[in-house]
Amino acid sequence: MNPKTLDDAPDAEWPMLSHDSSHTGFTGGKGPETNEVRWGRGSKTGYRVSSPVVANERVYVAWKGNLYCLDASDGSTLWKYEEVLSPPAVSNGRVYVSGEALYCLDATDGSLLWEHKPGSTVAPTVLNGRVFTVSGEYVHCLNALTGSPLWKYNVSGSVVSPAVWEERVYVSSDSLYCLNATDGSLLWTYKNFAYAQSPSRSAPTVSRGRVYVGTVSVGGTYAGYVYCLHASSGALLWKYKLANSVFSSPAVGYGRVYVACSSNDEPLYCFNASSGSLLWKRRDEGILSWNAPAIADEKVYMGAGTLVLCYDSTDGSLIWKYDTGHYGHSSPAIAYGHVYIGSGEDQELGGGYLYCFGEKGEWAKETLWIVIGSSVTGVGIATAIILYWKHRKSTST
Description:
It is built from no helices and 37 strands. The chain is mainly beta. It has one domain: Methylamine Dehydrogenase, Chain H.
């Protein structure tokens, strides 16, 4: 079987972080029109939920130190694998996920096919029979079938999830690096970021020959920037100063770039992808976003503060919102007309929830809420409680 390329990935699925190997955060599939919760899973012990991925009508998510494979229609557990930390990636019937090692699992039953040490907490990227991952200051390229190393490259500083586009690998550290995907040789480096700025927390996004990356402040200013570079040469095309740092990948679709910002008042910016001109920005007092938005069906979905939000992609008007009551969210995954998103990233404040939003359709069931990890008083053992949750606690506009 030939390895899948980006063009082979069906629009109905969301098989890796930010949808594809280029981290565009865009799908041609449908997204929900309302804030109806189809099902949810939660842990009272407050463990962080990774950004989910969705393929073959299953949701794969790292949670409580395990990789869970859930039925996408109702959230029930199909299998789990222990000792993982990173968001997973799914390709050709295999799941790639990292922890103490990079693990390759059978997507159907979770059995281990191979592992490669060392691991990391960073999401792997899979394309054309190769897995691109990081550990420490190294970028690794492995054979996706066997796990055998193909090459590695050392960069200075920690590395976030690589983006892969047209036989090139783009990685953010203290600088932005472009590597040859075949042999790992350096093609170019961009270091001319604004004073006291670093792209070390924003995984790059590649679309139509351009690379987009955000920066975080490492000095006395809170401002962040979004940069657009030529994908082949690394030449700067445009940049824009934001109200605060950018900790996630920009999303690109419909000729526009959407950037989540950690400002308390301006959580989302929209730019013309070619010129960098600001088209609109949201002004929502008291909410900020740390994770990448997702685009589908002329809508932008994201988590900010305690809210899951859906905006019109053209003008930024609010379509719907949902208050989870828990601060912090993963990046959304959009698949089968549904949005899957983790909520509650701070263990001390409670959290560790996974939501599925979507209208009733072929999955017309009562909303199922599953609480895991609650204890039985006087017995001290863990149990799972299944509740039918009919209350929807938020408002649409």
